[in-house]
Amino acid sequence: MIRASHADRDRVVDVLGAAAGDGRLTAGELDERVGAALSARTLGELVALTADLPAEAAVRTPEAKDVVRIEQQGASTRRGEGWVVPRRMEIRSAWGEVTLDLARAVITHGTLHIDLDLHAGSLKLLTRPGIVVDTDSLTASFAEVKAPRTVDTGVPVTLRVEIAGTISYGKIVVRAPRRRFGRKG
To answer: Are residues 49 and 73 in the same domain?
Structure first.
């Protein structure tokens, strides 16, 4: 089961509102389904709320690309909330920063392979329980790798990130996202 994000819930609420506007749902049905959408934990629960609506209105699980490439020099790249994690990433970065927010991403596969060529920059992975990062195949020269050791927390592994390649004069940081004051989640 894939966990639903805030964006997923909002999309379903929009679809339900449009269906009610078209006369496909009564006001009572709309209230009931919107309440269920806002409290849904998985994409499966959201799909069930739109299953009897026309296909163009239904919620779809996003498709992940096989390979995503990031090539940059002296720049910063961030993949934030709602991005779909691919099967493989090729990251080539010099004098820049790449941030991958896996904690708020849509995860459709069990493994993400990262082929890294990083020089004088940083790679930040924001994780949550259930995401494991393996840097055993990484060659580091004058670099720092800050990744917590894998500890069995009782949470099933939803994503295994395998980082291979090289890093020189840079750093990799694996951590949980920072909480912002006044914001839930």
So the answer is: no
Same domain, 115 and 170: yes
The number of folded domains in the chain is 2
Q: Please write the tens of the pLDDT for every residue from 43-83.
A: 888 888 888 887 655 555 567 788 999 999 999 999 987 78
Single out the residue of 155, 79, 73, 151 nearest to residue 114, CA to CA. 79
**Is 77 a domain residue?**
yes
Tell me which residue range forms the domain holding 93. 67-175
Q: Are residue 82 and residue 19 in the same domain, yes or no?
A: no
Classify residue 16 as left (phi > 0), alpha (psi -120 to 50) or beta.
alpha
Exposure string for 19-52, b = 16+ CB within 10 A, e = fewer: bbeeeebeeeebeebbebbeebeebebbbebbee
The model scores a pTM over 0.70: no
Q: For residue 178, give Cα distances in angstroms to 77, 103, 112, 174, 184.
A: 18, 11, 23, 12, 12
